[in-house]
Amino acid sequence: MSLALDTDVLIPWLVASAPGHADARALVEAELSRDGGRVAVAPQVCWEFLHAATDARRFERPCSVERAIGLLRAVWNAPETVRLPAPEAVVPRVLELMEAHRLGRKRILDTALAATLEAAGVRRLATWNASDYACFGFIEILVPGGPVGPAA
To answer: Domain residues for 40?
Structure first.
């Protein structure tokens, strides 16, 4: 079973100077060391990674675009990575989930990631933003450096 990575875990896993690097690295390395352990990455997380990791307002020492592309390319092409598709059915599911849970505009990307994971059959997500996914009962949340369990 794959562990999907939210952007807030992908960045500190790949960028040693990012806050939370040790916890993100420990979680991902533990997953990869399991028999058949793999990480799952959705295209939207790739775009968010490129946007956030290069942002000088977020990081004292942001990655250059070239470095961020290199890091992302290495992860995307790694044999341990499950590259999640963005199936056409995700758009109506996102709209359905947003209506059902009465979610606003700041929850669009999280909802799209949840719907993408659901469509791909990925049920585990590493994120520090567990509360953003709590309403989606089909996802088990793993918080780096924190307790492991299903979203409440």
So the answer is: 3-84+122-150
CATH number for position 15:
3.40.50
Read off the pTM: 0.86
80 falls within a domain: yes
- Look at the block and give the residue holding tokens 């791909």: 120
Spatial strand order of the sheet with 39-41 comes to 81-83, 39-41, 3-5, 124-126, 140-142, 148-150
Q: Phi/psi of residue 56, each to 5°?
A: -70, -20
- 89-127 residue pLDDT tens: 888 888 899 899 998 888 889 999 999 999 999 999 999
